[in-house]
């Protein structure tokens, strides 16, 4: 499972297409502070359009994490206070979702809207941490 930070629809489609071509399973993740810039609704609409879950990075903002959960996110990344993350995760679990404190150490594949591809990036070999989100099975939307 390789976490890939996507910026928009084009980068998400490119990540999913390249993952399918190379036989790699990817976890799509919004950029750090991406929910502050575009809102949780944007990332959830993008996930629905792709037919694939996107982990929403709420940085250290509990309000953004709560917004994402309220709108239906199943996987939220919260980099703030660990005690607060545990409380948010408790709420999320009752909703059938999770709030995680970090992605696996392998998170490093950032797919810009134009330009570099996943193939140009090294494949990390680190195993996912126990606190990392589950691996969604994403298919190429085309």
Return the CATH architecture: Alpha-Beta Barrel
Instruction: Estimate the strand proportion.
Output: 15-25%
N-to-C CA distance: 21 Å
Number of DSSP-assigned strands: 6
Features:
6 strands, alpha/beta, 37% helix, 142 residues, TIM Barrel, single chain, 6-stranded parallel beta sheet, 5 helices
Briefly, what is this?
This protein is of the alpha/beta class.
Explain how this protein is built.
By secondary structure, this protein is of the alpha/beta class. It has a single domain (2-112), classed as Aldolase class I (TIM Barrel), CATH 3.20.20.70. The chain is 37% helix and 15% strand. The chain has helices at 9-22, 34-38, 40-50, 62-70, 82-94, and strands at residues 2-6, 26-29, 54-57, 75-77, 98-100, 109-111. The chain has a 6-stranded parallel sheet. It is globular and about 40 Å long.
Write the layout of secondary structure elements.
Layout: E1 2-6, H1 9-22, E2 26-29, H2 34-38, H3 40-50, E3 54-57, H4 62-70, E4 75-77, H5 82-94, E5 98-100, E6 109-111
Parallel strand pairs: 1-2, 1-6, 2-3, 3-4, 4-5
Helix pairs in contact: 4-5
């Amino acid at each position: 499972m390789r976490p890939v930070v996507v910026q928009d629809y084009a980068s998400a489609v490119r990540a999913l297409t390249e993952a399918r071509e190379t036989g790699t399973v990817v976890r799509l993740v919004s950029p750090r502070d991406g929910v502050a810039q575009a809102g949780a609704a944007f990332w959830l609409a993008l996930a629905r359009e792709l037919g694939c879950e996107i982990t929403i990075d709420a940085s250290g903002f509990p309000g953004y994490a709560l917004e994402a959960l309220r709108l239906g996110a199943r996987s939220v990344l919260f980099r703030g206070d660990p005690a607060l993350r545990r409380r948010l995760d408790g709420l999320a679990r009752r909703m059938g979702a999770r709030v995680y404190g970090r992605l696996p150490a392998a998170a490093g594949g950032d797919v810009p809207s134009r330009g570099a591809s996943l193939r140009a990036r090294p494949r990390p070999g680190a195993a996912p941490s126990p606190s990392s989100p589950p691996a969604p099975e994403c298919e190429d939307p085309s």
